[in-house]
Amino acid sequence: MVTNKPSCIGQSLVVSFGLYRRRYETRVPNLGECADMKRDHPDVFGQMLIDASAGIDVREIVEREDHFLVSGLPVSRYLTSYKEWPLVQQKAITLAKGRVLDIGCGAGRHSLYLQENGFDVTGLDISPKAIQLCRERGLKKTVLMSIDRISISLGKFDTILLLENNFGLLENSAKAKRLLGKFYLATSETGRIIAQSSDPYTSQDPDTLDYQKTNRANNRMSGQLKMRLRYRRLISSWFDYLLVSKGEMREILKGTGWKVRRFLEFDHWSYVAVIEKLQKKPAKSSVRQM
Ligand SMILES: C[S@@+](CC[C@H](N)C(=O)[O-])C[C@H]1O[C@@H](n2cnc3c(N)ncnc32)[C@H](O)[C@@H]1O
């Protein structure tokens, strides 16, 4: 039986998972993070991962706010090993160095690969069930937390991973700049971000082109998305997501203390950016104290 009863102890929240009589704990740095657990909404993505790991053929159904169904890819891809990853991720992972923070780690496939190869890696995710699965799959360091709460309290990292389009977790240009400021403080002097995104302008789908047009009319970036996940009878809460072209990513990075060193690309729409720190510190406004 899986139990997932959060309890607050001192300044930490400890979430316990019991599965097949094994017990794990994931520590959340302060009580403020209790709110991130979205206990009012089902952990749809986590449940999809748990079922896929039990061998069920789960398909990822993403509903955009205009009711367009975005995808139908197998969730089992989040459980794959290195050899099955897209080439762009195989290449990207070789660029990780030092202490690594894998943001939105899911079932931990990238973190586990790095851990097996001797890296000090921490998997961070907002989904309690995803973190539970990471622990069961052997990931030693996990944090149950929203990207919004990342702070220096986790220590300094040399690499931040945002793979499988996880640059999208930055949601919009203003929030991205704020989070990049936090990443600046949470990384070493030679820190880097390895971030994957997809160019929204490569879409030829008429409904998607309409959606992008409406976005622009509402002063939103073309690739801003409001979506939710559907799985069996479960529906997640709506969440924001961002797809950017390479030029837009460069634009967002301006003034944050980060710059694209190079892009890795293996198909016409998905790419990975290797983002490095500028020598000169950015203005204080974009790097706030955490
Ligand atoms: C597309 S999956 C990618 C998983 C993993 N990186 C992989 O490639 O297998 C996105 C992950 O981000 C997590 N996530 C979504 N919103 C988040 C947030 N605000 N903070 C941290 N993680 C989040 C989801 O729970 C999910 O595990």
Feature tags:
alpha/beta, 7-stranded mixed β-sheet, binds S-adenosylmethionine, 7 helices, 290 residues, 14 strands, 4-stranded antiparallel β-sheet, Rossmann fold
As a percent range, the share of helical residues equals 10-25%
Morphology:
globular
What is the tally of beta strands?
A: 14
- How large, in whole angstroms, is the Cα Rg? 18 Å
CA distance, first residue to last residue: 38 Å
What's the number of structural domains? Answer: 2
CATH class of the largest domain: Alpha Beta
Task: Tell me what you see in this structure.
With 290 residues, the chain is α/β, with parallel strands linked by helices. The protein folds into two domains: 12-77 and 205-241, no CATH class; 86-199 and 245-287, Vaccinia Virus protein VP39 (Rossmann fold). It is built from seven helices and 14 strands. Strands 7-6-5-8-9-14-13 form a seven-stranded mixed sheet, with helices on both faces. Strands 4, 10, 11 and 12 form a four-stranded antiparallel sheet that branches. Strand 13 (258-265) and strand 14 form a beta hairpin.
Give the secondary structure arrangement, pairings included.
Blueprint: E1 3-9, E2 12-19, E3 22-28, H1 44-53, E4 61-64, H2 87-93, E5 100-103, H3 109-116, E6 121-125, H4 128-136, E7 141-144, E8 157-162, H5 173-185, E9 187-198, H6 206-217, E10 224-231, E11 234-235, E12 239-242, H7 246-253, E13 258-265, E14 270-277
Parallel strand pairs: 5-6, 5-8, 6-7, 8-9
Antiparallel strand pairs: 1-2, 2-3, 4-10, 9-14, 10-11, 10-12, 13-14
Bound molecules: S-adenosylmethionine (SAM).
Residues 45, 78, 104-106, 109, 125-127, 130, 146-147, 163-164, 166, 169 line the site of S-adenosylmethionine.
